[in-house]
Amino acid sequence: LNKKPKLCIIRVEGDKASERYVRNKNKMCDEIGILNETILLPNDVTQEEVKDKIMELNNDVECSGILLQLPLPKHLDEKYLLDQICPYLDVDCLSSWNIGKLLKGEEYVQSCTPKGIVGLLKFYGVDLKGKDVLIVNDSTIVGRPLALLMLKEKATPTIAHIETKNLKDKIKRADIIVLATGNANFVGADDFVKGQVIVDVSINVGTDGKLCGDVVKSDYNKLLKKGCLITPVPLGIGQTTVLSLMENVIEIAEKREEN
Fold it and tell me: Under 8 Å CB-to-CB from 116, ≥6 apart: which residues?
């Protein structure tokens, strides 16, 4: 590249987890040579002020990608503000334009967490073609875009959620299960069968105050004995999500130079 890519992150004060996530993103940028700037806004910031900051970054020729860190305080309209980001700078692929492109298979960039999940499975030689994939999450950040990427890989995705009837029966019938319910220790070794691939996306805080996923961590060895594969929490999908974000920043910078 003729110049270093630059990631611009907008974060609104008030969410401790967001503070940690942004710090991890800044650290990764520094490690691989991506310039980065975090704009910290007060918790009582108005919607118009956030919009003005996004518009300012849209017109900044040095900016290669814009990330609006979620969640936002309740008085801010998340969907509206995401749609103010220029689609060609939307590194999270969360604007309506980019989600629509993803639906048509013409994505400009791919959603970070789903991209990281598919990339991780491919890296470990998990064949997705024809596999039944149960995704226990229906959000626009994980479940819905992941289903679209799985279709692209010729897998057969099913989207479920915490209200799905007979959910644990459905889990046992799938080849690959992606869990993102946000419920600590929601499932254990007895909820899975031999040879399944389990992707645990959730980052929860257990009763002991430690980070955990939807799968009981003490059951990992039991799952391995069943011939299952499982992503760890922490240091699992959270890592691949950040790596995918870095890839998206670089891809956007490359496309901007080409054009």
Answer: 237, 239, 240, 241, 243, 244
